[in-house]
Amino acid sequence: MEARRNDPELGHYALVLALALGLIQSIAPIVGAATRDAGLMRLASSTALMQFLFVVLSFAALTVCYVTSDFSVLNVFENSHSMMPLIYKMSSVWGNHEGSMLLWVLILALFGALVAAFGANLPATLKAHVLAVQSWIACAFYLFILLTSNPFARQAQAPFEGRDLNPILQDPGLAIHPPLLYIGYVGFSIAFSFAIAALIEGRIDAAWARWVRPWTLMAWMFLTLGIAMARTGPTTRSAGAASGSGIRWRTLPSCRGSPAPRCCIPPW
Q: What is the pTM assigned to this prediction?
């Protein structure tokens, strides 16, 4: 009998460690800002970077499970097939609820890490508050994934073959469109974090607007690309092509009139 790979356990434990770091990041910088403790405020940057690395490791572990067709993982069994092209095995990672939630926290952690790495121009207290608030959001989603939507859940017996990805989702455009939309949509969380941090400090002025502007523009540009691709690109035609009817299915996340682009319009 072939020994089972440990990639799912590695991904699961990496996500647990990201949660632990997120809890530290949620509390220590707030305390540091309140007590003017520079060490605790600096802890926000290091934990944000480490948190991102662990989420990357977790996402990479799930990707490996898909690429190697590890059907002992329930999520892989339900959304993949050993004969699928590599691009669709990759897109299957976020082509389901559990995997898309993991992509969600990856982008949350990414924006926190970007502020930690490139936010040297921010006041120390504002940066500490921003990273703490960003971690509040991330921790909520870590708990949701680990408690209710674990993408690494195992099956006692690994099936010989998977059930395949929904044919409607097997389109090259859908391998690109969801990550673009997510980077933009989830990326606006950093603008929220800046806003809450400013409220905590009781300071919203022209300087704050100047600090938050580049992060908001970055998210807005990716959201624009995602919405534009959903409206004009091949993703709007894939459902009709798959069904042979020309009908754009409303259940397709990227088709015209579906909930995903509609919910992205208000922040855009």
A: 0.83
